[in-house]
């Protein structure tokens, strides 16, 4: 029961009703005690007036009966300036305290009532009150508290039973109301979510708001909008996935065709015809860009890269391999690397080679496209927390449009004919290492890309 909303609400309702009854109990028991004593004083006044009316012609047995009916031990009536003991019998003990009912304060009544309720010992008390209907100036009576406490206990038990009945009935009514108005609609909402989750692409399973309760209807409306959007996104992703598979197949075959065409174009450059010599390099350049586009598309179209196999890499060895591979196409663009002998870091050698190759190739192509010359440098620094690999060039810098969409596929290309896939792939590979690839600075003086590889994550694996 404690694990359900309605069960918790039921228990809390019972507890709160009982707490309210406890707060009501104290003034109630104080009022009961005051009424009990006031009633005994009225009876004592009637008994004393009966005795005075008989002018003392009442024997001891009748007097004792009057006292018993009044529930007191003696009666002192003050009329004019004199106090007169009207009725009397032997007291079982000395008077322990005096209770004044003429002008009691609420706090005093509640304090005395609680004290009497929890004091089991019987004692004799003297009660002072004003006579009813002008029957004198003051009336006093002594009484035994045993009957008073017994009546108070009975009254308290009745209040307890009544409180339990009220709390249970209230809790049951609220339980049924909460179950009807909240629990059942929430369960229906959860059941609908499960039905939708079984086939989210089916638009017929999108919830239709029907609740007349404003908050639940808002929840259903929000859920409907979310499910509608999700269904649309799933359909779009499915279409894109189908398109991606088709493009991957086409790109694969197209790359083979373009490779063959590139080889043929290379042979055309050997022809002595001036026109052919002038056109052939342009054809080769166009075919090369097309091959690069298909290769980039195929690489980006892979669903996911394999997890990196981290191992200790000699920085100098890896940097030298990357720089030598790019130097063949660099022409007059110097590519240098800097790493201390024996300096190392942890990464996947193959994936890090691809990352650095992409960065160095982009820098080399930017410098060559500017026609203003420049150089490239790959370096490694480290501290107790991370390794920092920087690829720095002195090229023209990245244009604003490329900076805005730097790591977005097909949008962050900085040169004509590029796809922008190189940086996207490199960034995904670095994230697989638990690191980040970021543009540290760019401008007319050059560009710096930084690879941040945390030591802690690398040492855990």
Automatic annotation (TrEMBL):
Domain Histidine kinase: 249-457
InterPro entries in the cross-refs: HATPase_C_sf (IPR036890), HATPase_dom (IPR003594), His_kinase_dom (IPR005467), HisK_dim/P_dom (IPR003661), HisK_dim/P_sf (IPR036097), Sig_transdc_His_kin-like_C (IPR004358), TCS_sensor_his_kinase (IPR050428)
Statement: the UniProt record of this protein carries the keyword Transmembrane helix: yes
Predominant place of localization: membrane
Protein name per its UniProtKB record: histidine kinase
Transmembrane segments: 9-30, 155-178
Compartment(s): Membrane
Catalytic activity annotation: ATP + protein L-histidine = ADP + protein N-phospho-L-histidine
């Amino acid at each position: 029961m404690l694990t359900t909303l309605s069960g918790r609400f039921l228990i809390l309702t019972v507890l709160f009703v009982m707490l309210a009854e406890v707060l009501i109990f104290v003034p109630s028991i104080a009022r009961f005690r005051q009424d009990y004593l006031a009633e005994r004083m009225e009876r004592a006044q009637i008994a004393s007036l009966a005795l005075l009316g008989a002018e003392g012609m009442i024997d001891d047995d009748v007097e004792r009966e009057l006292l018993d009916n009044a529930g007191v031990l003696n009666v002192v009536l003050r009329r004019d300036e004199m106090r007169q003991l009207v009725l009397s019998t032997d007291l079982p003990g000395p008077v322990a305290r005096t209770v004044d009912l003429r002008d009691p304060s609420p706090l005093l009544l509640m304090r005395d009532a609680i004290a009497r309720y929890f004091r089991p010992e019987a004692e004799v008390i003297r009660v002072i009150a004003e006579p009813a209907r002008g029957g004198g100036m003051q009336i006093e009576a002594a009484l035994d508290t045993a009957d008073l406490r017994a009546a108070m206990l009975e009254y308290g038990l009745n209040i307890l039973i009544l409180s339990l009945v009220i709390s249970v009935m209230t809790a049951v009514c609220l339980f049924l109301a909460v179950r009807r108005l909240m629990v059942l609609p929430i369960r229906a909402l959860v059941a609908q979510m499960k039905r939708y989750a079984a086939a989210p692409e089916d638009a017929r399973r999108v919830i239709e708001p029907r609740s007349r309760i404003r908050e639940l209807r808002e929840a259903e409306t929000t859920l409907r909008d979310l499910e509608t959007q999700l269904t649309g996104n799933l359909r779009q992703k499915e279409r894109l996935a189908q398109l991606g598979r088709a493009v991957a197949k086409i790109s694969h075959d197209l790359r083979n065709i373009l490779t063959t065409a590139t080889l043929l174009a290379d042979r055309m450059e050997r022809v002595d015809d001036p026109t052919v010599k002038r056109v052939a390099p342009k054809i080769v350049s166009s075919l090369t860009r097309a091959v690069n586009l298909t290769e980039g598309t195929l690489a980006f179209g892979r669903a996911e890269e394999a997890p990196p196999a981290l191992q200790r890499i000699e920085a100098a060895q890896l940097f030298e391999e990357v720089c030598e591979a790019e130097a063949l196409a660099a022409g007059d663009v110097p590519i240098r690397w800097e790493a201390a002998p024996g300096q190392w870091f942890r990464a996947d050698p193959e994936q890090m080679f691809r990352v650095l190759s992409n960065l160095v190739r982009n820098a080399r192509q930017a410098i060559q496209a500017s026609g203003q010359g420049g150089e490239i440098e790959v370096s490694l620094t480290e501290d107790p927390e991370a390794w920092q690999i920087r690829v720095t060039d002195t090229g023209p810098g990245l244009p604003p449009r490329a900076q805005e969409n730097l790591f977005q596929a097909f949008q962050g290309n900085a040169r004509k004919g590029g796809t922008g896939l190189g940086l996207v792939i490199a960034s995904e590979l670095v994230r697989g290492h638990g690191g980040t690839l970021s543009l540290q600075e760019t401008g007319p003086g050059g560009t710096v890309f930084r690879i941040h590889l945390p030591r802690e994550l690398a040492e855990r694996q």
